[in-house]
Specification:
CATH architecture of the largest domain: 2-Layer Sandwich
Distance between the termini: 71 Å
Helix content: 25-40%
Number of domains: 5
Largest sheet: 8 strands, antiparallel
Number of helices: 16
CATH topology of the largest domain: D-amino Acid Aminotransferase, Chain A, domain 1
Number of strands: 39
């Protein structure tokens, strides 16, 4: 069916990605946006945009009627759903077709068939695709689940039947944990996918997560475009993806690719899809699920095949046949992708919000950055925390890996915490560098969680120097012109000035004084002479005989800086001002904006440090709020269903200092 206008029913980097290809094909594009996304780049890039709500996804990007109304008002002939939101909603796909438009994706029956893990698994078993032993029955009672566990054995995975992405998923290793895991998985699955249905699967320990990109047209052609290894995960969410898989052989690729094509044919598939498998150390593989949409990690496939998968989606939706046969597909070189998130890995990967004060994506040979942010934008609590994807390609895996490390370092976003340092550390792990990563990599690398290292005194000194220089520049702007060679000059010795910096949970006592051309900063017993010189879009800092290229931004009493893979924010503590870093005690506040899902304690109850107090839903995930101290619950200030802002008081604990 021909069309000349596409409405992109999504936001962020995938909306930008789709709009760019559509416009390159000569098609008109329509963006949808909320008040929270009014300044987002996908809105500016599209030919037309339609406001669809304030911010919460249920009243905007997940509102099918609202999306359809926007498409009809702008005379869109097709809707591209991107990924997430309504992309795998069979009812929405059917409604698009009923409204006389083209859904750029598979037929509704295929989405429905593969959207339920239980039904999809039964279908795959019938099609001869290898599957993990488990339970996908219709009896969802705890009794039936417990009976099935007796046949499956431990360890096992509890999974939401209606969705993925790590939501509604729990690893269970003993009988005592089963009931709670079922309850939590049902609750999370209902909130994320609108269905409490679960399946059970035998846990395949330490596998690789390998998925195949499949494509099908309306003329009966189905092919695969090779595989992606997505083994590096945390909380069942992908962190690093690469193509091809480091341990893939031609024979195994042919076997797994044939299974992926068979899975697509079993549901009469059309368009782009991904068939996911678990691959064990012996080379056996098992069907995991099929994602009936474009994947977040599709750029690595594009970079090794030289193809534009969004263009393929659009051409297939217009009725064209696939331009290649299976024998025509060629994989060249290696590509690796990481996801830049607004989150704090050292604080349990908690999602973060805040302004985008500086954004400078990397550029260079073999580097691609797909982003959905611009400077001045506010990171909202309503949406997934992914900000951008950073991808590198090279003739070999090692070239791609080293290029990607540099690209992560060079992609600088200041204003909100990101996982940049964590990503660079992951890419540098010897096990990953050797191509030996499995799904257990991160748990082995950081068994106690990714920890924030103690602040390097020289970096604290650099932060102090940036604050001092910012103060001086502001004073000079008010005082009038002073020659550069007079800055810092005095006929008398200037006494150093004291200041305290809060960096994470650390509070550092510093001293600062000026000298011609720079600053003399003391941090504890150490002392550093620092000069700062503008260089391009950033600064070059000389610390003694060492130089650092950096990007920095000062907002009030807080300085944000990036150098190499390091991202640091330091806040100056004013005398007499309340020091939040030292206020924690037994007062529990919301670590981010979110919705209270459950309260696990009541006034008067005794709790131990680490006990779960409440469950907060934010950025599409549920987060357990733990007791910071041992003591007795003094007050509970919130209730289930209540919306909270970051810093809102939740619970007070009267600390038991004798415990």
């Amino acid at each position: 069916m021909a069309f000349d206008t596409i409405l992109v029913a999504n936001r962020g980097e995938i909306a930008v990605r789709v709009i760019r290809t559509a416009r390159a094909m000569g098609l008109r594009t329509v963006a949808v946006y909320t008040s929270a996304d009014a300044d987002a780049p996908h809105v500016a890039l599209a030919d037309e945009s339609v406001w669809i709500g304030e911010g919460p996804v249920g009243d905007s990007y997940l509102d099918a009627e609202c999306i359809l109304d926007a498409a009809e008002r702008t005379k869109a002939g097709a809707i591209h759903p991107g990924y997430g939101f309504l992309s795998e909603n069979a009812a929405f796909a059917a409604a698009v077709v009923e409204a006389g438009m083209v859904f750029i994706g598979p037929e509704p029956h295929a989405i429905e068939a593969m959207g339920n893990k239980a039904g999809a698994k039964r279908m795959m078993i019938a099609a001869g695709v290898p599957c993990v032993p488990g339970y996908e029955g219709t009896d969802q009672s705890d009794i039936a689940m417990t009976r099935a566990v007796g046949q499956i054995g431990f360890p096992l995975m509890v999974k939401a039947a209606a969705g993925g992405g790590g939501r509604g998923m729990r690893l269970v290793e003993q009988t005592e944990a089963l009931t709670q895991a079922l309850a939590r998985a049902r609750s999370e699955a209902l909130g994320a996918f609108g269905s409490e249905e679960l399946i059970l699967e035998k846990a395949i320990l330490e596998p690789r997560h390998v998925e195949f990109q499949v494509f099908a047209d309306a003329h009966g052609n189905v092919i695969h475009l090779g595989e992606r290894d997505c083994s590096v995960q945390r909380r069942h969410q992908k962190v690093v993806e690469e193509a091809p898989c480091p341990v893939m052989t031609p024979d195994l690729r042919a076997e797994m690719g044939a299974a992926a094509v068979a899975a697509a044919r079993a549901v009469d598939y059309r368009g782009a899809g991904t068939v996911e498998f678990l691959l064990d150390a012996a080379g056996a593989f098992y069907f995991l699920e099929m994602n009936t949409r474009l994947q977040v990690e599709h750029p690595v496939t594009e970079m090794v095949t030289g193809l534009d998968l969004v263009e393929w989606q659009i051409r297939v939706a217009q009725g064209e046949a696939l331009p290649l046969t299976q024998d025509d597909v060629r994989l060249e070189g290696h590509a690796i992708e990481v996801r830049l998130y607004a989150e704090d890995p050292a604080n349990g990967y908690l999602p973060a919000t805040g302004p985008v004060l500086r954004w400078r994506p990397a550029a260079g040979a073999g580097v691609r950055v797909d982003a959905g942010v611009v400077e001045g934008q506010e990171i909202s609590p309503h949406y997934d925390p992914m900000l951008a994807k950073i991808i590198a390609h090279g003739p070999t895996r090692e070239v791609a890996r080293t290029r990607l490390i540099r690209a992560v370092e060079d992609s600088v976003l200041l204003g909100t915490p990101t996982n940049s340092t964590f990503l660079a550390d992951v890419l540098a792990l010897p096990e990953f560098a050797a191509g030996a990563a499995t799904t257990g990599l991160l748990a082995r690398a950081w068994p106690d969680g990714y920890a924030r290292t103690a602040t390097d005194p020289s970096m604290a000194a650099l932060a102090a120097a940036l604050l001092m220089q910012h103060d001086r520049d502001n004073a000079l702007a008010r005082a009038g012109h002073i020659a550069a060679d007079q800055l810092g000059w005095s006929s008398a010795l200037l006494l150093p000035r004291g200041l305290s910096l809060a960096i994470g949970e650390e509070v550092l006592a510093c001293s600062a004084g000026a000298f011609p051309g720079g600053w003399r900063i003391g941090v504890g017993e150490a002392q550093f002479d620092i000069s700062l010189v503008a260089q391009g879009n950033g600064l070059r800092a000389s610390i003694g005989e060492t130089t650092h290229d950096l990007t920095a931004h000062v907002a009030g009493d807080t300085v944000f800086l990036a150098t190499g893979a390091l991202r640091l924010s330091a806040r100056r503590l004013r005398p007499g001002a309340q020091d939040d870093a030292a206020q924690a005690g037994g007062r529990v506040v919301a670590p981010m904006p979110g919705l209270v899902q459950a309260i696990a304690v009541e006034t008067g109850a005794l709790v131990a440090r680490g006990d779960t107090l409440a469950v907060l839903e934010a950025m599409k995930m549920q987060h357990q709020i733990a007791a910071p101290v041992t003591g007795r619950i003094k007050a509970v200030h919130v209730k289930p269903g209540q919306s909270l802002a970051a810093g809102d008081a939740m619970i007070e604990i009267e600390e038991d200092i004798d415990a």
